[in-house]
Amino acid sequence: MKNRALLLAVAVLVLSMLGSGVSAAEKITVAVGGWALEDTIRALEELGFTEKTGIEVEVQVRPGAAPDFLSQMTSAIMAGTTPYDVIALEDECFISMSRAGWLVPLDELFDDEFWTDFPQDMLDMIEVWHRHDGQLYRMPHNFEAQYFWYRKDILDELGLEVPQTWEELIEVGKQLTDDGVWAISDGMAKGAYLMVNLGYWTLQAGGNAFDLGPEFETALQFLHDLMYEHAIFPVAALNRDFDALNQDYMNDRVIMMRQWPYFWDVGRSDPEWFEEDKMAIALPLEGPGGRATYAAAWGWSIPKTSTKIDAAKTFIEFMTSIENAPKLAQMSVWWLSPRKSILEVVGDEGIAKYMAWYSAEGVIKPRPFHPRFLEAGTVLEDIASAYLTNQITLEETLNRARQRFDDL
């Protein structure tokens, strides 16, 4: 009897709501990486998203590894469904999903005035990495440039200046490398780490690693020389990830490194180690192609099988608006980019100061692109790893890479 009475009460309540024109708020599911869960929940609460739009949001953690996430979405979309209405997508997954036709165009959400808030380097990135066939399928909410970090405390102690060019890196590096201490290193294990590194050096050589042109050959030869001829870059880096790189840097085993902006928080999380001059940032080195680094980004996309596309669009428009973007950037570096509205608010704070500096200097270039990014990256890693461990020659490296690219 109690259950029947409860059901009757609920039914009466629902009918009364319908009769009065009141309806329950629409609810969407937003997927983010595990590291962004708390930041996203906090942002929605502090910005009053539900109160302002009438849309409720359930924030979930999506599979972090690109292959696992793509497998999940393949099964869902082939069945005509989706576990998420809005997804935070990295570059790798976006390339696959946009080319498969799984995403909803977003151009209608943003007018000409909105795009004036973006610097040219960010617009260049959007053109390459967020559009497909002229349509916008992902709206970036951050901009993660790779920075050139160095131990200013150690260079100052030795009376050395931070190198500015490839040639100066060799000259200074020989004075820094000692027993168990390396002038420069990186995380270069297979699984996208090495691919990132190859793209970085080839960009400074003036090209795209995926083109397998003379710039890639120059970069690969230079990296090999750093390891063997000049002996200032550890071969062991080929087996190390970014966590290991960070530990080497913070334990005086590495003096310079290329690293993503998240290291800003990593270094500061250890108060016993941290000092400002231990985490200095310089402009990227100048190679044969000039000074260059590149940025990666995460952004919001909507799967076409969502049944709540309008509400999902409202979410993206709200979270990336000129009004809200600066507020989000103040909450977390996860929302940081060199948009004009953001830099007006946080331009001199934390890592934002260096992002603005890099952007103003024009050294941030679009990330090296390939339409089959994951597969092509695996080829680069396999072939380059064999060369950098002296299993094959540089000529064999290039020939094998070109053959395997043809097979793609």
Strand order of the largest sheet: 2-1-3-15-6
The amount of beta strand, in percent, is 5-15%
Mean pLDDT: 93
Number of domains: 2
- The level 1 CATH classification of the largest domain is Alpha Beta
Summing up helix and strand content along with how strands pair, one would put the structural category as: alpha/beta
Principal-axes shape call = globular
- For this structure, the quaternary state is single chain
Annotation, overall tally of beta strands: 16
Helix content: 40-55%
CATH topology of the largest domain: D-Maltodextrin-Binding Protein, domain 2
Q: How would you sum up the major sheet?
A: 5 strands, mixed
Can you walk through the features of this model?
This protein is of the alpha/beta class and 408 residues long. It folds into two domains: 23-143 and 297-365, 3-Layer(aba) Sandwich (D-Maltodextrin-Binding Protein, domain 2), CATH 3.40.190; 145-294 and 370-407, D-Maltodextrin-Binding Protein, domain 2 (3-Layer(aba) Sandwich). The chain is 48% helix and 14% strand. It contains 19 helices and 16 strands. It has a five-stranded mixed β-sheet. Strands 9-10-8-11 form a four-stranded mixed β-sheet. The longest helix has 18 residues, at 2-19. The protein is globular, with a radius of gyration of 24 Å. It starts with a helix and ends with a helix. The model is unreliable at 1-23 (pLDDT under 50).
